[in-house]
């Protein structure tokens, strides 16, 4: 049977270095770690993970709660989480919660019962119940963040980003600007609406509630909402959608109505998903570093697990960029 000494011999390192590379790979130089992993593969070595976990008191697994894996922005965030976790020697346990609190609490229980070492929550909900004075399990809240999160957070300044999109439309001469919102209870929806209203106020415009339609971040909701906006007696000359998927649904409905984008009506989105630049026409949107959200969340969570400096007061605000493409133009 292949043992750890054979791996050490093949890699040209000590047994202790092999052990560190397998148990705590982040403390081993990348070149050395790669040599050890290659030797492990060559030798067919399979460490006793149960024994390793027992000695280290770590499972080296992280729970990730995502509201829906169907959303392409969340898929990119998960990619960043997986990449960063693997680099540090961790696996991820992914739960597609669909926003169900009971499901989220059940998966959070894996951390409380030491079946996983920590949790990343991508929705504005705390799945850990009152702990009766016990220390909170390690958790990071990313993307859609609680207002008073009891843990480190990674978020975007959604209000400022929405204001930037609206200001862009205003500079093109648009004054009747429609908005298609996200889910009613989402902080993202609230903050993006506030940014939209901020820009209108600075321009001396009063918000027209008839031009604000509900959506749920899906293309079908953007399609329906665009139809509602077109039915108004005085429809908008531009539509700001709170995410790109709703913007794509909206553009399809506008084209079915015989309208040209942007000659007859402008459309802007939010997120800069991969499809945004391949729309017809390419979509003006807000780019945010989705993969970096995931990497930052893992870094903060592992700091918390390792007892380093990540505290509930640590909040990372990620950068955004207004990406102007061909879906927005001067008011007709």
UniProtKB/TrEMBL annotation:
<keyword id="KW-0238">DNA-binding</keyword>
<dbReference type="InterPro" id="IPR046335">
    <property type="entry name" value="LacI/GalR-like_sensor"/>
</dbReference>
<keyword id="KW-0805">Transcription regulation</keyword>
<protein>
    <submittedName>
        <fullName>LacI family transcriptional regulator</fullName>
    </submittedName>
</protein>
<dbReference type="Pfam" id="PF00356">
    <property type="entry name" value="LacI"/>
</dbReference>
<keyword id="KW-0804">Transcription</keyword>
<dbReference type="InterPro" id="IPR000843">
    <property type="entry name" value="HTH_LacI"/>
</dbReference>
<dbReference type="InterPro" id="IPR010982">
    <property type="entry name" value="Lambda_DNA-bd_dom_sf"/>
</dbReference>
<feature type="domain" description="HTH lacI-type">
    <location>
        <begin position="2"/>
        <end position="56"/>
    </location>
</feature>
<dbReference type="GO" id="GO:0003700">
    <property type="term" value="F:DNA-binding transcription factor activity"/>
</dbReference>
<dbReference type="InterPro" id="IPR028082">
    <property type="entry name" value="Peripla_BP_I"/>
</dbReference>
<dbReference type="GO" id="GO:0000976">
    <property type="term" value="F:transcription cis-regulatory region binding"/>
</dbReference>
<keyword id="KW-0678">Repressor</keyword>
<dbReference type="Pfam" id="PF13377">
    <property type="entry name" value="Peripla_BP_3"/>
</dbReference>
């Amino acid at each position: 049977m292949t043992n750890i000494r054979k791996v050490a011999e093949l890699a040209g390192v000590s047994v202790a270095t092999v052990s560190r590379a397998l148990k705590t790979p982040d403390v081993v130089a990348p070149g050395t770690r790669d040599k050890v992993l290659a030797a492990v593969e060559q030798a067919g070595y399979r460490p006793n993970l149960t024994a390793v976990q027992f000695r280290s008191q770590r499972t080296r697994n992280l729970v990730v709660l995502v509201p829906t894996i169907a959303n392409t922005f969340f898929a990119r965030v998960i990619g960043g989480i997986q990449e960063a976790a693997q680099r540090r020697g961790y696996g991820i346990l992914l739960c597609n919660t669909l926003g169900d609190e009971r499901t989220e609490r059940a998966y959070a229980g894996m951390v409380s019962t030491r079946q996983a070492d920590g949790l990343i929550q991508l929705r504005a909900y705390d799945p850990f119940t009152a702990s009766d004075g016990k220390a909170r399990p390690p958790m990071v809240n990313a993307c859609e963040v609680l207002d008073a999160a009891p843990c480190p957070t990674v978020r975007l300044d959604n209000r400022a980003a929405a204001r930037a999109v609206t200001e862009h439309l205003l500079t093109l001469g648009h004054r009747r600007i429609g908005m298609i919102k996200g889910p009613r209870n989402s902080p993202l929806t609230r903050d993006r609406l506030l940014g939209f209203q901020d820009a209108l106020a600075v321009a001396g415009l009063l918000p027209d509630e008839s031009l604000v339609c509900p959506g749920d971040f899906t293309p079908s909701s953007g399609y329906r909402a665009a139809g509602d906006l077109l039915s108004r007696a005085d429809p908008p000359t531009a539509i700001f959608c709170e995410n790109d998927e709703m913007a794509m649904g909206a553009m399809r409905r506008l084209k079915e109505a015989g309208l040209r984008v942007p000659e007859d009506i402008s459309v802007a989105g939010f997120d800069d998903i991969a499809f945004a630049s391949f729309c017809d026409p390419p979509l003006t949107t807000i780019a945010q570093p989705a993969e970096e959200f995931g990497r930052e969340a893992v870094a903060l969570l592992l700091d918390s697990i390792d007892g380093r400096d990540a505290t509930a007061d640590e909040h990372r605000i990620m950068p955004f960029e207004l990406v102007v493409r061909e879906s927005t133009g001067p008011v007709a």
